[in-house]
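Following the same procedure, the fold was encoded as tokens, giving this record:
***
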Amino acid sequence: MSDGPSVDEFMRHLQSVLDDAATIVDEKEREKRLWQIEATLQETIIFKNRYTTLQEHGIDPLRLVEPKEGDPAPPRTTTAEAVMTSSSNCGKCGSIMDADLNFCPSCGKKK
């Protein structure tokens, strides 16, 4: 899962998209797109800073959170969806489990 782009690479991508968006001719569309990209960039910076701070304090930023009692169960996946996404269903809650994960992203059950 860590073979993908990093947060820094994503931020560089957003910067280049921001530069491209500045050339949109329609003023309203340009303003809307610039706002979207800038908001995404801000959220990415907040995420990166929070992630780093949690790591510095010895907290795993990606730990699973136990569902609260009374939370609705995640929707079940159809067989077609599982085949198309190269995933399977969790034996505990029925949610999609990606092939590269060794746990269910909905309930936390390990494969």
